[in-house]
């Protein structure tokens, strides 16, 4: 038995390693496309600005190589691969994942969706972080609201820069790849070809987004792997043929000589050298698509060695050639042997497209996270794959990115300005990650503050130097990410502020339970057949829109459901923890409250599936006797609002069988509750289930209401700033927030609801 068990364990380990290697191979196309194409423009960007000159002594090229090697090693390998990848939020990575992780461990946050009793499923299933002794940092974040605002703004700044990177990376990558045409054309013909070809490729890239990456995903990994193999082999050839001793330049001594000789010019050239680590943040943000070990395996065994060999090979070639007409002619393609230049050009363009695809998909994912946490206007999110998690398409954002990308490409028309812009966006995101990561070390990992300070000072100092070098190029293109991030940051802050104010208005103006009880079982109005679904942001109390509705209309549905869809600050919510069902008032009222919880990376159900899951959850709540030991008060003072976690709804079937043999139906009375309508709804009860007449009557009424149909009552709140508000608040609420509200999508679950089933009720909210 011991031998067999050991063989089984060995087989499982072998299978596990095989799956990890497959994931590592797949990650090449999704994660490393951007980083793999950086050799196309790093040396060119470093020398193109005129800050440094390529001299006979080779101090400049050796210094740049040394800086590239140590930057790639310290920032990407040490910081991201070995340290930051460990800070995952239930398997997810990225700036917002770090923010969510900190807020959940500290117990302080500004997101309305993270407030309220019992809204964190982690706490219910025992997965919440254990309590730790209060520290000064933790206490400050919990008590000082201005620090919470600063932390949120800091996270949103990093997010807005990621979106800006989604505009700049496709432009830089594709333009740099196509620039290889210069060496194959004479008489400056390339200036008439380069820009149109780049624009055509970019338009095609964005136009194909709606097909989804899964349709062409099988091409991504082979293309990037072939590209890395290609640049690695060319690098080895150049090292052996031109300068076998170039490896000596990896010594930090050459960095010192470089900065000593070039001084201010060398410092300003760091903005171009910085581009060697582009894609590092995308590697962390795409953590949810793969595993830590697969990303580490791919980087350490394939990506890192290939990039180092490519940079060394370019330096070896350039060190033996000093007859370049201009500094901006120093680049990747001059080091490629002429006989294979055209094939390499084709592979480079394909690799640039793959790299651009990765950052575009990453931008979609970041915006989806922001939407889920009420930090970005609601947009249409299309899930392009039913099997691969995270592959989404957002039409509005896609076309905005395309227009901005084309504007940058046509406006600058050279790699220098676009690279300056991309460099500032990349380093800003890295600084945000460093600061948030230092908080994670103290607050989430419970390490000594000395380790957090060491991490912050070491990597922060390196990134601060690069940031200063990038910022000094503000007038040479670096202003673009600043403007883009300001626009996106303004949109996100105003939307979050307006949403928070609307939530506060709803809480302050909700109707008390006593008001409802005084109406009597009929609620003082005529009850008509069907289910009325009222959307509300509240998890307790009666929304003001309900009283506004019954005051103006004399009738309502026989079954009323107050629906609250919440996005919690977790990546995923398990299906058995998604639905919470409670009763409002007495049983005769037929009023229910349903809270549906989604993680910020969860896929929300379409309308038909959502309706079925909703009705089956209410039916199971009725059958199980309203509440169980998993129930808890939802924050109100009323004993009528007990919510229960419905792990599995009561299944039911819908068919169009005509009224037929009642005798066969009566034989299954204990198992099925059948309506006599032409469209039958049948709840399937567990074996030997015993239900009393009161429960049976309530299930029968729910059945009849479901057969009649479901109506969606949507609240339309018109936000207005109170008189006497400041000018900034009036502009933010009355103009910007209202404009965003009018041009944003409705709730995700109601996107496919027929217009004839939707009723919109308007209210003016003075905030």
From TrEMBL:
Cellular-component GO terms for this entry: membrane
Principal location: membrane
Topological category with respect to the lipid bilayer: Multi-pass membrane protein
Chain segments carrying region Disordered: 654-674
Ranges where the K+ potassium transporter integral membrane domain occurs: 23-517
Cellular location(s): Membrane
Keyword Membrane: yes
Keywords for the protein's UniProt record, in alphabetical order: Ion transport, Membrane, Potassium, Potassium transport, Transmembrane, Transmembrane helix, Transport
InterPro entries reported in the protein's UniProt record: K+_transporter (IPR003855), K_trans_C (IPR053952), K_trans_N (IPR053951)
Ranges for domain K+ potassium transporter C-terminal: 530-766
TM region(s), chain numbering: 21-41, 61-84, 149-181, 193-212, 218-243, 264-285, 297-319, 340-360, 392-412, 424-443, 449-467, 479-498
Top-level taxon: Eukaryota
A GO molecular function held by the record: potassium ion transmembrane transporter activity
Family: Belongs to the HAK/KUP transporter (TC 2.A.72.3) family.
Functional description taken from the UniProt entry: Potassium transporter.
Protein name (record): Potassium transporter
């Amino acid at each position: 038995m011991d031998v067999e068990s050991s063989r089984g364990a060995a087989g499982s380990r072998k299978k596990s390693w095989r799956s990890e290697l497959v994931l590592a191979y797949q990650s090449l196309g999704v994660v490393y496309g951007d980083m793999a194409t950086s050799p196309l423009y790093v040396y060119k960007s470093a020398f193109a600005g005129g800050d440094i000159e390529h001299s006979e002594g080779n101090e400049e090229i050796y210094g740049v190589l040394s800086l590239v090697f140590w930057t790639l090693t310290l920032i990407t390998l040490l910081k991201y691969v070995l340290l930051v990848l460990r800070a995952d939020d239930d398997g997810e990575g990225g700036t917002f994942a770090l923010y969510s992780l900190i807020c959940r461990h500290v117990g302080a946050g500004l997101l309305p969706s993270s407030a309220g009793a019992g809204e964190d499923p982690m706490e219910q299933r025992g997965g919440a972080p254990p309590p730790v002794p209060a520290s000064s940092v933790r206490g400050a974040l919990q008590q000082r609201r201005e620090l919470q605002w600063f932390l949120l703004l800091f996270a949103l700044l990093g997010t807005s820069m990621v979106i800006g990177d989604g505009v700049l990376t496709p432009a830089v990558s594709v333009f740099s790849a196509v620039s290889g045409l210069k060496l194959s054309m004479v008489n400056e013909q390339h200036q008439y070809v380069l820009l149109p070809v780049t624009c055509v490729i970019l338009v095609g890239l964005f136009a194909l987004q709606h097909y989804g990456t899964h349709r062409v995903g099988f091409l991504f990994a082979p293309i990037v792997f072939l590209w890395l193999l290609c640049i690695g082999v060319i690098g080895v050839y150049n090292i052996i043929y031109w300068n076998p001793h170039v490896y000596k330049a990896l010594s930090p001594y050459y960095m010192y000589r470089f900065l000593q000789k070039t001084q201010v010019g060398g410092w300003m050239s760091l903005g171009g050298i910085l581009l060697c680590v582009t894609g590092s943040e995308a590697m962390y943000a795409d953590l949810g698509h793969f595993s830590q070990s697969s990303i580490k395996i791919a980087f350490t065994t394939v990506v890192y060695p290939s990039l180092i060999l490519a940079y060394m090979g370019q330096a070896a070639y350039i060190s033996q050639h000093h007859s370049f007409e201009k500094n901006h002619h120093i680049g990747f393609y001059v080091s490629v042997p002429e006989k294979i230049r055209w094939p390499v050009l084709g592979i480079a363009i394909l690799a640039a497209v793959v790299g651009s695809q990765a950052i575009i998909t990453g931008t979609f994912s970041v915006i989806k996270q922001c939407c889920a946490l009420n930090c970005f206007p609601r947009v249409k999110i299309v899930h392009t794959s039913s099997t691969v998690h995270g592959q989404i398409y957002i039409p509005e954002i896609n076309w905005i990115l395309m227009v901005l990308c084309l504007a940058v490409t046509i406006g600058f028309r050279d790699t220098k300005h676009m690279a300056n812009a991309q460099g500032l966006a990349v380093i800003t995101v890295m600084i945000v990650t460093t600061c948030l990561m230092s908080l994670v070390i103290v607050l989430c990992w419970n390490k000594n503050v000395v380790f957090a300070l060491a991490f912050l000072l070491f990597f922060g100092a390196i990134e601060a130097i690069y940031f200063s070098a990038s910022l000094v190029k503000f007038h040479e293109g670096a202003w673009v990410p600043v403007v883009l991030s300001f626009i996106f940051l303004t949109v996100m802050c105003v939307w979050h502020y307006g949403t928070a104010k609307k939530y506060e208005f709803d809480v302050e103006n909700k109707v008390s339970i006593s008001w409802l009880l005084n109406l009597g079982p009929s609620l003082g109005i005529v009850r008509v057949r069907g289910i009325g679904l009222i959307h509300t942001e509240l998890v307790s109390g009666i929304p003001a829109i309900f009283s506004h509705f019954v005051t103006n209309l004399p009738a309502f549905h026989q079954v009323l459901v107050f629906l609250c869809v919440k996005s919690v600050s977790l990546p995923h919510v398990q299906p058995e923890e998604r639905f919470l069902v409670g009763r409002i008032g007495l049983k005769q009222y037929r009023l229910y409250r349903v809270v549906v919880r989604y993680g910020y990376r969860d896929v929300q159900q379409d309308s038909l599936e959502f309706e079925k899951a909703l009705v089956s959850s209410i039916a199971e709540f009725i059958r199980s006797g309203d509440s169980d030991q998993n129930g808890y008060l939802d924050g109100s003072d009323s004993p009528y609002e007990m919510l229960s976690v419905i792990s599995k709804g009561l299944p039911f079937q819908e068919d169009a069988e005509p009224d037929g043999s009642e005798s066969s139906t009566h034989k299954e009375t204990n198992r099925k509750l059948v309506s006599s309508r032409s469209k039958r709804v049948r709840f399937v009860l567990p074996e030997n289930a015993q239900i009393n007449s009161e429960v049976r009557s309530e299930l029968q009424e729910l059945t009849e209401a479901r057969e009649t149909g479901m109506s969606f009552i949507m609240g339309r709140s018109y936000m207005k700033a109170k008189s006497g508000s400041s000018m900034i608040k009036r502009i933010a609420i009355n103009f910007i927030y209202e404009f965003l509200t009018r041009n944003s999508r409705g709730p995700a679950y109601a996107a496919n609801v027929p217009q004839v089933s939707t009723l919109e009720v308007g209210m003016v909210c003075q905030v």
